[in-house]
Input
Amino acid sequence: MFDFDAFVIGSGPAGTIIAAALSERGLRVGGMTARQLRQVWPNTYGIWQDELEALGLKELLGHCWENCGSYFGRDRVDHHRGYGLFDKVKLQNYLLAKCEAGGVVWQQGKAKSIEHESHRSIVTTTEGEMISARVVIDASGHEPMFVKRQAQGAIAYQTAYGIVGHFSAPPVDPQQFVFMDFRSEHLSETERANEPPTFLYAGDFGEDVYFVEETSLAMSPPLSFEFLERRLHNRLAARGISVTAVHEVERVIFPMTLPLPDLHQPIVAFGGAASMVHPASGYLVGALLRRAPGLAEVIATALKDPQAETAAIARVAWQELWNPDRLRKYYLYRFGLEKLMRFDEVLLKQHFDTFFSLPQSQWAGFLADGLSTPELLAAMVRLFATAPNSLRWGLMQFPGWEGNLLWQFLSLQSARASEPMASKSL
Ligand SMILES: Cc1cc2nc3c(=O)[nH]c(=O)nc-3n(C[C@H](O)[C@H](O)[C@H](O)COP(=O)(O)OP(=O)(O)OC[C@H]3O[C@@H](n4cnc5c(N)ncnc54)[C@H](O)[C@@H]3O)c2cc1C
Output
């Protein structure tokens, strides 16, 4: 039987990032990959350029646009901030090289079952092989193999239908990235009134190649790819543009409102499996790169005690991943998204127009989950204060689940207020 300090299930972004971080701390790390380890990841990942600069990883960008803007009305809103798409091969190779340097032992196969003993967990593969580790990290994606989550109702999904290719005329201006184009003149009055709002996410790849993606921020049930594809072609056709050659089609679907994991289980998770997708923006990869060192450090420290029980190691890891501040913010983001999902197109455009008029530190911090709870609240209050009256009125309505989310946030906030001073300073 193989035996490791830490065993990671999954070799997507989360699995490779956490395996690399754990091995960098001198741990004996094993990993299980259901696909060929070097098979290129299927998704394209976007990120704001300064987030990668802060990590010293700007060279991992494949495409980068200094010129990034949005349309919430007729005029372009310039974000004064560079945006990029990862070169996913570079990102994957960079992480696998770190894993190799740290001696991570990857095995190809599928984890099938897990048993927890007091001082180790034992994973059995579909081939019947057994792997033992003092702690197991489930990084098997949004529908995790082993991690249990709290019960919750319907989940909202982000969906998008995208094309990379040649067009009869440029779908975006040269060297531009359009983050959100909510213009909808191509839709009829009935469509605008009765159908869900979607936006275009698009960029100029150079050499006459463009990327266009019709996106639904979040819906439950999710918008279908057929609907988004039709919307995309309508949008282009209204501007007299047709697709002349398709290099790649991307169909995006991932959950935005995953319930929180059970924070008392004897297995840890990372990435989609740990419900780490930002519940209001959908971003994940930047957060994985920022947060893996902290999680790896906590696990490495816990493992220094040879008597530490598996459940105790997992507990400190969950506390690191979902500490009280993060839990509070989770409910605030979920509250925010719930509002957006109820807004019609007019309110949604007003919302984003107001949001991107906030100081950049506030909107950027919101999107990357880089604000503390008080900072996040300050950004939300400022948005409310600067919003037009119609949007303010929309924000004050609580027709559904958002009241519940706000209540969960307030309960955590009041629990914090009643904590003794000593534990506050921890
Ligand atoms: C099309 C698309 C576009 C996205 N775009 C962005 C973006 O621009 N920016 C961003 O930040 N986020 C984006 N996301 C969201 C999120 O970053 C991705 O979903 C990301 O891939 C999640 O990473 P992960 O490693 O947690 O899971 P995954 O990438 O799903 O990786 C999980 C891995 O575990 C393996 N696995 C599963 N079960 C087992 C098992 N039993 N045994 C062994 N291995 C197993 C799978 O084969 C897979 O390789 C996007 C998502 C999608 C789907």
Remarks:
- Confidence is low (pLDDT under 50) at residues 420-426.
- The radius of gyration is 22 Å.
- The chain has three domains: 2-39+85-149+261-322, 157-255, 325-424.
- The longest strand covers residues 243-255.
